[in-house]
Amino acid sequence: MTAGTNVDALVVGAGLGGIYSTYLLSKMGLTVKCIEMAADVGGTWYWNRYPGAMSDTESYLYRYSWDKEDLQTYPWTHHYVYQPDILKYLQHVVARHDLRKYMQFNCEMKAATWEEDSQRWRITCSTGEIILARYLINSLGLLSKAKYPDIKGLETFKGKLIHTSNWDDSVSLEGKRIGVIGNGSTGVQVLTALAPVAGKLVSFQRSPQYSVPSGQGPVTAEYRADINARYDEIYKHVFNSNVGFGVPESTRKTMEATPAERREAFQKVWDQGNGFRFMFSAFGDLTTDIDANKEACEFIKSKIDEIIKDRRKAAALKPTELYARRPLCDSGYYQIFNRDNVDIVALRDNPISEIIPAGIKLSDGTVHELDVLISATGFEAIEGSYMRICVKGRNGETMQDHWKNGLKAYGAIACSGFPNMFIVAGPQGAFANFPIVIESEVRFIMECINYAESNRSIIGNRSNGSSTDGHADGLDKPGPTIMEVTPEAEQGWSDHCDSLVVGSVFTTSKSWIFSQNIEGRKVNTNFFFGGLNAYIDWVKKETSNGFPGFRRE
Ligand code: NA7
Fold first, then answer.
1. Is-contact 351 343, C-beta < 8 A?
2. Same domain for 176 and 297?
3. ipTM rounded to 2 decimals
4. pLDDT in tens, 210-261
5. Which of 517, 518, 521, 526 for a ligand 1 pocket mutation test, highest count of atoms within 8 Å of Cβ?
6. What ligand 1 atom has the least distance to the C-alpha of 434?
7. What's the rounded Cα separation, in Å, for the pair 508 and 501?
8. Structural domain boundaries enclosing 115
9. Residues near ligand 1 with C-beta < 6 Å?
10. Which of 108, 472, 493, 496 could form a disulfide with 126 if both were Cys (CB 3.0 to 4.6 A apart)?
11. How far apart are CA 405 and CA 297, in angstroms?
């Protein structure tokens, strides 16, 4: 067997989760290596370089919470950070904590196999290198494998075809005839940014979505000083909240308000901006009460009518489904349709019949000639990153086998049969602000590793003859040195996630949140909808109770 580089822990991916994992593992004193298929750090923010790409979490929270000095000193100029600035921030964190020395770029994990004899993971890289690791932390990205539209003739298009997550900076867009397929959060951002640049811009829209203003704009020195003075309090609130976006989370019932009060409440959050604020701050039941949800729908549709002058375009942009997807926000999306160079094609009335060399042909025979076709069609979320590689756990079981009946992971971080392997931003994590979710999951993973390491040292001390009375969990015997979740615990978590979506308005819409954006894929509860605070409380119980979900032999 080929020898390989030996490390205690291998982190795969150098995005938000991989960087934080690398930082904590190195602090724990373990030997750590982080491999990344891209040429640099950033993860999602390395790849998604399309015009207008920005986070829709407010800037003061789109950063790590754990470096308090950096929180207060690292600059941010606007309420929302654009992709180049997020990338710079992540590069800055890596430099500030001297993490680059652990990282190897242009190196993709192709396969990982658990070896019973050595109790290690054997990782094969795209470079041909072999790495042997006791712990494998996969931070491959939730939204990493691009999904192209399955439309006849796509490959025949003679212009430039670009997926937003694999942007090609060399393509000139100025004055070009540009078509965009997809109008989720990515589509809305790219369309808004390209409207003033394109000669002609057409949105080929299958399902209109609800979007609210983001409230983007420069921040004042006073605003920044106020945030800096309150960071401890802010993060305390965020980690104790349901969605972690720093917005108030109302418990008020929509239908108990009068029509005038409802409109006033919706108008207030519309004016303040932010999709999560709109969904969770005016009232507390938009995601659980259909009548309440319909009120929000009517309010946003009335705004579409107010903003868009052309009745045909306004009608096309009005959704028919409930407000039940990841909430979108924008920097003037509906407004772009008042421009003469921007049009919308409602595919629900006139579907694409095929893509031809010159552009897009619709079912009624209309041809839209295009120079550039942008696919903002999303991702093979979560599992996409795992299905393209071969990860084999105990008895040769692959992740493909393991997830064939649906995606699941205990506490979002571990799968049974995959010992000492952890997942960041895998299935069934909290549906909340992602940097915070990632931090919470990484901390849980580190608790697991720390626990196993403590047990190792107890056993090591005993076999060295040194006496030690302490046990990692205070029980009579040391706990496991290999962390492997039981199938019962994993299934229990998954069942719990399923039970939490019963009655949720979110189940009425088809999106990647329930794996419904991919034809033929089984509907799956991909998130834990119990709230970020409940997830964190559950992790605390799990760790203080000696990790009952993990095997003890
Ligand atoms: P999304 O939210 O999955 O959106 C994909 C969009 O692409 C959506 O509007 C789809 O319409 C559309 N789509 C996909 N396939 C087709 C075809 N064949 N024809 C027409 N339209 C199509 O991806 P995003 O990148 O916007 O956002 C993903 C996440 O990234 C987001 O939640 C943020 O957290 C960041 P559909 O609605 O399926 O009818």
1. no
2. yes
3. 0.99
4. 999 999 999 999 999 999 999 999 999 999 999 999 999 999 999 999 999 9
5. 517
6. 34
7. 11
8. 5-145+381-456+475-551
9. 143, 149-151, 181-187, 206-207, 326, 347, 376-378, 511-512, 517
10. 108
11. 34
